[in-house]
């Protein structure tokens, strides 16, 4: 089973990477660009074939390592 | 208009971050984890309201700054 975890900053958390991208785009002449936010996407190949167990496993991975629950939120997508 | 750009390494490109995550998960006792790959998600608020123009603009941003076409691929999603 494949799992895709999208991790992004919680609203209100300063996103220096997003700020840097926004400034760089303006410097390159791109206009009309408002807020820019950068997050992570982690794709995992899992041996687990049961969707519920796989989700539970990935949830535990997010809590233990992949995401910082203080400043980040995460969304889990599973695919066969 | 909101744009979401998902950037990931091309197949075959070494992903040290993914490797590090994979080893860390194994060290934490997670079993059955195969390949792990990490990419970026960049969310942009655009003043542009026309979808075709917005896609063209984001395409140009990807080529100019957001993605490294030598080792990365990108996918653009637009939302009102």
Tell me about this structure.
Chains A, B: Its main location: cytoplasm. 2 copies of one chain form a homodimer. With 80 residues, chain A is α+β, with helices and mostly antiparallel strands. Chain A has one domain (2-79): Mth169, Chain: A, CATH 3.30.1280. The first copy, chain A, has 2 helices and 3 strands. Chain A has a 3-stranded antiparallel sheet. Chain A starts with a strand and ends with a strand. The mean pLDDT of chain A is 96. Strand 2 (33-46) of chain A pairs antiparallel with strand 2 (33-46) of chain B.
Write the layout of secondary structure elements.
The structure is a homodimer of 80-residue chains.
Chain A: E1 2-9, H1 16-27, E2 33-46, H2 51-66, E3 72-79
Antiparallel strand pairs in A: 1-2, 1-3
Span between N and C termini of chain A?
Answer: 5 Å
The CATH superfamily of chain A turns out to be Phosphoribosylformylglycinamidine synthase subunit PurS
> pLDDT under 50 segments of chain A (min length 5)?
none
Compute the number of strand runs of chain A: 3
Sheet with the most strands, sense and barrel status of chain A: 3 strands, antiparallel
Domain count of chain A: 1
């Amino acid at each position: 089973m494949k799992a895709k975890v999208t991790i992004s900053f919680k609203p209100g958390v300063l996103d220096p990477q997003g700020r840097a991208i926004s400034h760089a785009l303006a410097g390159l002449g791109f206009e009309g660009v408002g807020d820019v936010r950068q997050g992570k996407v982690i794709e995992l190949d899992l041996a687990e074939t049961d969707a519920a167990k796989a989700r539970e496993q990935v949830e535990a991975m997010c809590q233990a390592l992949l995401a910082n629950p203080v400043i980040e939120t995460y969304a889990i997508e599973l695919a066969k």
